[in-house]
Amino acid sequence: MQSQRAPRESGAVFELQSALPLCRSETLRLAAGLSDADATVQSMEDASPSKWHLAHTTWFFEQFVLQPYLPGYAVFHPQFQFLFNSYYEAVGQRQPRPQRGLLSRPTLEEVLAYRAHVDRALETLLRLAPLPECAALIELGLHHEQQHQELFLTDLLHLFAHNPLRPAYRSGPELSSQAAGDPGQGWVDYPGGIVEVGHAGGGFAFDCEGPAHAVLLKPYALALRPVSNRDWRAFIDAGGYQDPQLWLSEGWAKVQAARWTAPLYWREFEGGWLQMTLHGEKPLEWDAPVVHLSFFEADAFARWSRARLPTEFEWEAAARAQPVRGHFAASARFRPRPSAEDHQAPLRQLYGDVWEWTASPFMGYPGFRPAPGAVGEYNGKFMCGQFVLRGGSCATPAGHVRPSYRNFFHPAQRWQFSGLRLAQDRQ
């Protein structure tokens, strides 16, 4: 994972001195109230235990910042490099990802002590006015930790959804299952043309967001709002999960093998529908965006709707005209809002609430080159077999996304807060 730029020398360290502690304390806030058992269990190979997220984000700073740049730094525990490396081949061997849930030791208490040890060292380093390349790595580590804050929530929801008790991670606001004044599925037209996409400077970005470059877009339209739970119920009732004509071949095979009949975390109960959330199992909010969908499901719905998924460039061109405002994790709602609660124009819920699948494969832009060394491994080597999502979700940290931000997942994965917005051609 590599940043596209180093922080400005003037004021950069001061910015980090305030931003880094806030980020690190937010991760601790997310973990507050979890038992050692909650933080240790792993629900599937794609998910990681909460304790591992707490330790891995700390390992990142110890490995890439403190050991190279803080003279005399004492490593907290020599075996943590093996336990909490994720997939940085240049750094060395690691605990296999499917076996992270077997780490009953170190305990949660020891992991929190590890974080405190590293935080004290980072505070010392920042007081020493680190070199620009060191400050850039600290900034990169901050944004890396924000990514893991979101994964912390998605992985914990997946874990609790497998518990028959349907436990709540946190108490939340009372949520209504009644209609909230759905504005309807209107369309917003865009002229297309030659547009510039990608990050062109002026703030942090990951390397996969650039280089900025021009693309040609034909005239198109985006739906006013994301697809809702009500829309998805119509797809279910129309037999969408039983019609092979709607599905890509691999998607149809997955539907049959996994016996998908509804989005992840939906459960039909006594004639109604419930949804597992971080506040426990709750009635569906019909006018909220549908969430926890795979790319295959999003693509099938678009076909059924006689529409399509937007390309990531169509999405970005539209997003550049709207401010980055929306419903993010700071609200602690951890569930998409009904569309009527967002009054932004022309597109509602473009940022936050739900990640939106695009039709675009995750690949490098023209001129993209992975950075040398271990920190360049994060994005470039995963540009195969994954699709891009845009916009952030109700579990994304506020301030983490921007028009050029690219999230990416395999097409069958659906434990992320992922949904869709429809697109149409206008020529």
* Secondary structure tally, helices: 11
Number of DSSP-assigned strands: 14
Mean of residue pLDDT values: 93
Basic shape? globular
Structural class: alpha+beta
Strand order of the largest sheet: 12-11-10-13
Instruction: Report the span from N to C terminus.
Output: 39 Å
Q: Can you give me a brief rundown of this structure?
A:
The protein has helices at residues 9-31, 36-40, 50-69, 80-84, 108-127, 132-161, 229-237, 249-258, 295-304, 312-319, 377-380, and strands at 187-190, 193-197, 213-217, 220-223, 266-269, 272-277, 280-283, 326-327, 351-352, 355-361, 387-390, 407-409, 418-419, 423-425. It is of the alpha+beta class and 427 residues long.
What do these coordinates show?
The chain is of the alpha+beta class. It has 2 domains: 9-161; 187-425, paralog of FGE (formylglycine-generating enzyme) (Alpha-Beta Complex), CATH 3.90.1580.10. 34% of the residues lie in helices and 13% in strands. The protein is built from 11 helices and 14 strands. The strands form 5 sheets. A 4-stranded mixed sheet has the order 12-11-10-13. Strands 1-4-14 form a 3-stranded antiparallel sheet, covered by helices on one side. Helix 3 runs parallel beside helix 5 (108-127). The longest helix has 30 residues, at 132-161. It is globular. The two termini are 39 Å apart. Residues 4-10 have low confidence and may be disordered.
Key attributes of the depicted protein:
427 residues; alpha+beta; paralog of FGE (formylglycine-generating enzyme); four-stranded mixed β-sheet; three-stranded antiparallel β-sheet
